[in-house]
Design goal:
The structure is a single chain. By secondary structure, this protein is mostly helical. The protein has one domain. 76% of the residues lie in helices and 5% in strands. Strands 1-2 form a two-stranded antiparallel sheet. A two-stranded antiparallel sheet has the order 3-4. A hairpin with a 4-residue loop joins strand 3 and strand 4. The protein is globular.
Length: 346
């Protein structure tokens, strides 16, 4: 079965290449759907498949850059991208990303990069899952009390407090339908950029929820704008990690083959999902990533071989199941749309 393994010349490891294809295709769909690069699943996924953590981070970021270009173009056609808002976040994102990349190099020098990155992942994933759960629960209560809620309304409304900060200059972002201090998106960009550099993610893991809960964007605009920002941070991340010799280009090419197709389909799928449904599926995906990292940590600490394999099944199986849900719903929506058009014509 040697033909199923591909040698990575830069990192010096043999990788199960069908796993790379599954990750690329699946996370391409998930990334286009959630508005993020999908690195919160790909980085641990690459590490589980055999990449050293620093190479998993660098390789994933390079994969993000290519895939996000396709997804951003597709969302732009639906009017889901607020370019001025995304540009406002770039300065903070780049500064934060470089800070995070330097921190990873420090962890690598002291020999703790795998342990520290996984622990940070667990805390971030747990916080995001809790925030989305709290949001959905509060939103359901509002729906029960009022009968219906607007598309712009969220359960967690931290942004209302942050909108009261009026530090000049004040900008009106038309597509997102918000008027806020310029420094709010810059600060959000720095925080997400810092975590992006440490965790090897485009920042979408926390930027998409941050745009909803801290900046106040509607879900669909948060998805498209986040992908635009992921594209920018991904391009910069590719440069800095390649310069540091931590990018495996063969792995990037294999994943992009599937991701290019998946990203376009995922972007189209958002048209057939409500904002709350996107958030619920997002929380499920975060939980799957959290569980796989816990399994990996326990397996390494207590040398449990079967649990190490189970972590691979969890991450790849989770990507596949959620991908199937999105594909099924999107196809059903497209078929219903075509049927409605035919009936209208007759």
């Amino acid at each position: 079965m040697e033909w199923l393994y591909l040698y990575m010349p830069i990192s010096g490891v043999d990788i199960f290449w069908p796993g790379l294809v599954i990750l690329g295709l699946g996370v391409g769909i998930l990334g286009g759907f959630y508005g993020m690069g999908g690195a919160w699943m790909i980085t641990p996924g690459l590490n589980i498949l055999g990449f050293p953590m620093a190479f998993a981070i660098g390789t994933d970021i390079a994969h993000i850059a290519g895939k996000s270009i396709v997804s951003t173009m597709r969302h732009a056609r639906f009017g889901n991208v607020d370019y001025p808002l995304g540009i406002a976040m770039i300065v903070g994102t780049v500064l934060g990303f470089e800070s995070g990349a330097q921190l990873v190099m420090l962890f690598e020098r002291i020999g703790k990069v795998d342990l520290y990155v996984r622990i940070i992942y667990l805390f971030v994933l747990a916080f995001i899952a809790w925030t989305v759960y709290l949001d959905v629960r509060k939103l359901k209560r509002k729906k029960m009390m009022k009968g219906e809620v607007s598309k712009l309304e969220a359960g967690v409304e931290w942004y209302k407090t942050l909108h009261k900060i009026k530090i000049p200059p004040i900008f009106h972002f038309k597509q997102a339908q918000i008027r806020v201090s310029f420094w709010l998106p810059v600060m959000v960009g720095y925080a997400t950029g810092l975590l992006a550099g440490v965790l090897g993610i485009g920042g979408g893991l926390i930027r998409m929820p941050a745009l909803i809960y801290l900046v106040g964007c509607p879900t669909h605009v948060a998805v498209g704008t986040d992908l635009f920002e992921v594209m920018i941070s991904g391009l910069y991340g590719t440069f800095t990690y390649t310069w540091k010799g931590r990018t495996e280009l063969i792995g990037v090419i294999v994943m992009l083959a599937g991701a290019a197709i998946g990203a376009q389909f995922g972007a189209v799928a958002t048209k057939y999902f409500k904002g709350m449904a996107i958030r619920v599926l997002f929380a499920c995906a975060v939980f799957i990533a959290f569980l796989s990292i816990v399994q990996k940590l326990i397996a390494r600490l207590y040398d449990i071989v079967w649990l190490d394999h189970a972590s691979t099944v969890t991450i790849l199986g989770g990507v596949f199941v959620i991908m199937c849900i999105i594909v099924y719903k999107a196809i059903a929506g497209m078929r219903a749309e075509v049927k409605a058009k035919k009936q209208a014509q007759t």
